Amino acid sequence: MDTEERRRGILETARRDGSVDVGQLAVELQVSKETVRRDLNALERHGLVRRTHGGAHPVESAGFETTLAFRTTMHVPEKSRIAAAAVALLGDAETVYIDEGYTPQLIAAALPRDRPLTVVTASLSTVGALASAENINVLLLGGRVRGGTLATVDHWATRMLSGFAIDLAYVGANSISREYGLTTPDPAVGALKAEVMRVAKRRVFSGVHTKFGAVSFCRFAQVTDFEAIVTDTGLHSSEARRYALLGPQVVQA
């Protein structure tokens, strides 16, 4: 197995499993740990993976995006804590946008049921979770359904969204960095998220620590556009402070 073939295999494993471990790869590939580290460093330079302590995880890009089904299996305890902390920021909002993705779906499930709320969403999964909820009126944006995420996109969705004035938007992203802002692999998704940013009075980003420092294909917002960033304690405290210096409140659950 040559170097390029080995690195392709490492990338495929990272995308299949959600992460890779240096020691495990060294055993499986019958190479040294230092060789694996060099491979991961090379993949990181090409923007394909993000190094972590002892391994790496894949970066979502124009050519690769995880499915909703996969996201429901990764970092579930962290996502549940993030959702609870995000809902604590609801305040007196009466109209709420819930983005596509598993963490936003958990936010929807955690919304209070003892007060009237109107929820706008592109996510079929969120609609299913809220359709029978007492006191919650749900509006689903129309459009083309993306099979991997079970969410609507394209001009039908953005046109419908453009007619609203939303109190609070819970926005997700595939990647977030201080330099490039919030990004997503799909241009259609990016266009919808950009419209959400335009029509929402308040905006809260929620996402696990693995999204930070990575960059996907389509930028739709800057870090400074948000009143709050809600993540888990896996984001280093010094990095959290750097994001807070840009303006948003950073909440680590």
UniProtKB/TrEMBL annotation:
SMART domains: DeoRC, HTH_DEOR. GO terms for molecular function: DNA binding. PROSITE patterns: HTH_DEOR_2. The keyword Repressor applies. Residues 3-58 form the HTH deoR-type domain. It comes from the Bacteria. Pfam families: DeoRC, HTH_DeoR. Keywords: DNA-binding, Repressor, Transcription, Transcription regulation. Repressor of the lactose catabolism operon. Galactose-6-phosphate is the inducer. This is Lactose phosphotransferase system repressor. The lineage of its organism: Bacteria, Bacillati, Actinomycetota, Actinomycetes, Kitasatosporales.
